[in-house]
Amino acid sequence: MDLGLKDRVALVAASSQGLGKAVALGLAREGAKLALCARSEAALTATAAEIRAETGVQVIARAFDVTVHADVRAFVAETQAAFGAVDICVANAGGPPSKSFADTTIEDWERATDLNLMSTVYFAKETLPLMQARRWGRFIAITSMTVKQPVEGLILSNAVRSGVSGLVKTLSNEYGPYNVLVNNVCPGYTATARLLSLAATLAQKEGVTPAGIEDRWARQAPLRRIGQPEEFANLVVFLASERASYITGVSIQVDGGMVKGLY
Ligand code: NAD
Fold this sequence. Notes:
Elements: E1 9-12, H1 18-29, E2 33-38, H2 41-55, E3 59-63, H3 69-83, E4 88-91, H4 106-134, E5 137-142, H5 155-175, E6 180-187, H6 193-206, H7 210-220, H8 229-240, E7 251-254
Parallel strand pairs: 1-2, 1-4, 2-3, 4-5, 5-6, 6-7
Helix pairs in contact: 1-2, 1-8, 3-4, 4-5, 6-7
The protein binds nicotinamide-adenine-dinucleotide.
């Protein structure tokens, strides 16, 4: 299947490692030009070089924090100026810490809201008008399976990311008439640095090994294993493509069957 992604311009946020990096690499392998960002300059520069070397696509890479609206605005403007368009935006960020409600502070709630909800709003504000003007666009939020089934100990993610689901569905209504598709992709347990750190936190709390925690997570999924970042990226790349042209307003999990509900 030709995904029709060659020379499309894709902005992928929080992409120096993990899911964002896998998505960026997947899009680059289909010939898309990339604009990447993350907080750590060194890691981001290395990722951009690796993707250029493997795929030969043009890559812009800028280090900044996606919770700062002015920086998101400048990055989108730079991408538009360099490539003449922003066709695809993948809104992503790090995840909030694992805590019980009793252990959270008001500052934790404000940080999680900035990190996962407001950063998505900033990318939507800056990129959707550009897509609307060209009557073609793909805006994809990366959230979590927690939007379909809350995970114990992840109350910040469970609560704040549901706001992103509501945002995505509403934006799909507003921008659908302009051929701009807005979707939400929800990872289950996937082998990245974020997962290792969650496993380490839980292991310490329970006095077991991180490997034991990962085994337990793997057993909970019907596929009986943790997912790989590339398996997650494959869906995002498809949704970003020409071939996903009649899919908008959906939240789809890539979780090995972990979510037990019907939808
Ligand atoms: P990761 O920790 O491996 O990578 C996070 C990336 O985000 C890095 O590139 C980091 O530099 C960047 N980043 C973090 N905070 C940022 C900020 N404020 N500004 C700019 N860049 C920032 O995480 P991951 O596993 O790739 O997860 C990506 C998202 O998916 C997170 O929100 C995570 O909570 C969520 N998620 C992951 C899993 C999983 O199992 N990996 C499951 C469900 C949800």
